Amino acid sequence: MSKTVNITSPQQFSDLLKASKIVVANFFAESDVPSELVAPLYEQLSQAVSRPNLATFVKVNAQTQKDVASAYSVTTLPTFIVFRSGSAVDKVQGANPAKLGAIVKKLVSEIDNIDNAEPSGSASGSGSNWRGAPLPRGYSDITSQIEVRRSELLNVDSALGGVQVLFDGGKPSALSGGDGAAKDWIESDTDEQLMLFLPFHSMLKLHTLQITSLPPTNNDDDDDDEAPTRPRTIKLFSNKPHNLGFDEAEDMGATQVIELTENDWNMEGTANISLRYVKFQNINSLVLFVVNGEGDSEKVRLDRIRLIGEAGEKREMGKLEKIGDEPGE
User: Fold this and answer.
1) Is residue 130 domain-resident?
2) Which residues in 302-321 are b (16+ Cβ under 10 Å) and which e?
3) pLDDT at 218
4) Strand partners, 186
5) Cα distance between residue 27 and residue 25, in whole Å
6) What gap in Å lies between CA 208 and CA 10, rounded to an integer?
7) What was the pLDDT predicted at 257?
8) Are residues 151 and 266 in the same domain?
9) Residue 268 DSSP label
10) For residues 266 and 212, is the Cβ–Cβ distance under 8 A?
């Protein structure tokens, strides 16, 4: 489903400029050959970059929305204009995929900076950029490089939080005295195995994986098979284009296998896992397979995941600029 918004009135366009921090507008005309040539690239950019109330991609038919086109001096089709806080800041005239890709590459960097300056609020209401363990010297928290919308969980209890809670910037409710109503964690469903696919915005150098798991401690009245527990064995697979099946992951050689013990978990319920750094250079995705959990429980619980390392060049832009590049560019 397209994320691009079709503008049907000047008022709608004006409202969007107020509601979204960044707006990218494609002024086009039907049956215009240059407009049609660049339309697939624009849709690809929209799918990759759009974010609610932050970055909105729109299409403006210059033939039916003449007032909007005139207001921004659109005389060539297609014309692409980037608006920030309601003001036009960049403009590309004509079907020039290389220039459009370069502008959106800069736009992605700006969006990442906004994300880092405004960490996501937590279900517990703390709104902080919480981590359960210190950062290794010389490395940064690069969790924001995860493409949350394309991430996928398999064998997860749908009654609890979705994949997005794992990357929430706030302190887990279990550490804040919460009553569990927030449901800001995930649990496995039919057995203790979980499969998590994480695609990235950038090529990453991954140094450390921080996993927080906070199963309830007062389980006296609970069946041991029903009470969730922490993961014990985890397999990591790098650079996979999609999620793996459980049978496939069982048989496939992993990039790294992790065996956790009780001593690996700190007072914040976080395991600070150092990775074989040489094996996690220039990766564009990670599959995390929880093979089993502690004890005899048939459920595994995850509260937070943090990726620590270095972020490199934007992966999507590397792909996009190959589409329609002019010779020599």
Assistant:
1) no
2) bbbbbbbbbbbebbbbeebb
3) 60
4) 302
5) 6
6) 49
7) 98
8) yes
9) T
10) no
117-168 pLDDT, tens digit per residue, is 444 433 333 334 788 999 888 889 999 899 988 999 999 998 888 899 999 8
Return the axis-axis angle of helices 33-49 and 97-117, rounded to nearest 10°. Answer: 20
Instruction: Pull the structure tokens for residue 260.
Output: 């956790």
Q: Using alpha carbons, select from 314, 283, 312, 310 the residue that is nearest to residue 104.
A: 314
As a whole number of angstroms, the longest Cα–Cα distance in the chain is: 73
Of 237, 223, 131, nearest to 175 (Cα)? 131
Smallest Cα–Cα separation from 294: which of 272, 263, 266? 263
CATH code for position 180? 2.60.120.470
For residue 190, give its domain range: 140-316
Dihedral sign from CA coordinates of 46, 50, 54, 60: positive
Residue 240 one-letter amino acid: K
Q: Quick one: tokens of 60?
A: 């403006």
Contacts for 136 with CB less than 8 Å, ≥ 6 apart: 207, 208, 274, 308
Antiparallel, parallel or unpaired: β 231-238 and 186-187: unpaired
The token duo for 77 is 């089709």
User: What is the residue-wise DSSP string for 69-94?
Assistant: HHHTT--SSSEEEEEETTEEEEEEES
